[in-house]
Amino acid sequence: MRRKLAAGNWKMNGLRAGLAEMDALAKAHPAPAVDILLCPPATLIAPAAQALSGSRIALGGQDCHQETSGAYTGDLSAQMLKDAGARAVILGHSERREKHRETSEEVRLKARAAQAEGLMTVICLGESAFQREATNTLDIIGAQLSLSVPDESTGENLVVAYEPIWAIGSGQTPTPEQIGEVHTFMRARLERRFGSGVGRSVRLLYGGSVKAENADEIFGIPDVDGALVGGASLTAQDFSPIIEALEKL
């Protein structure tokens, strides 16, 4: 059985005052029936690791460099994230693919470096509105999945998050049929590439305007093993109902 995962991506939000929200979330879920991952800005990872010590909430970064160290001003290595207290890292988010022009090949190199450090990699895939309307969504997802995921991936170090770009922060959500089609496709591709053992053990998340009001419906879709949540993960009040909806399964 794949253990469900509720992951929160804080993006470029959060100061030290936000640690109170993490503490409130930990107190609300002292023994969660699912895994909980919070990915705050890198500046908060170390203090959050200290504040959440003893809790069941894991911390992650939002990106890492493919090299361990070197002359890469402003970048952070997977080793640095781990040293600060991270156990995971989000890679290939559409905002980085678009605004930083990251390619799937670069995402794969970053993922390989993160996995080598023992970090769980949450690799994001998704199509634009134009690509969705052109009805080649599965071609886009298939190419991103093939090129972004390292050969060394396992069910322990890989999570794949499907985030249609047009749904992120827009309030729009794909239909259950659309989400199900992509998740079934990704599962089949992973099984074909890695074999049924690894392919069936990788957790597949949905992300894109996930909130308490639609969580039950989304989590009821086959092969949806949880969610990668954006804005609704910033407060315990908004994130807790999503976690609770996942725990009911």
Q: Would you mind describing this structure in some detail?
A:
By secondary structure, the chain is of the alpha/beta class. The chain has one domain: TIM Barrel. The protein is 44% helix and 15% strand. Strands 7-6-5-4-3-2-1-8 form an eight-stranded parallel β-sheet. Helix 3 links the parallel strand 3 and strand 4. It is globular. It starts with a strand and ends with a helix. The model has no long low-confidence stretch (mean pLDDT 96).
Topology:
Blueprint: E1 5-9, H1 19-28, E2 35-39, H2 42-51, E3 57-61, H3 78-84, E4 88-91, H4 94-99, H5 104-116, E5 120-125, H6 129-133, H7 137-148, E6 158-162, H8 176-201, E7 203-206, H9 212-219, E8 226-229, H10 236-247
Parallel strand pairs: 1-2, 1-8, 2-3, 3-4, 4-5, 5-6, 6-7
Helix pairs in contact: 1-10, 5-7, 7-8, 9-10
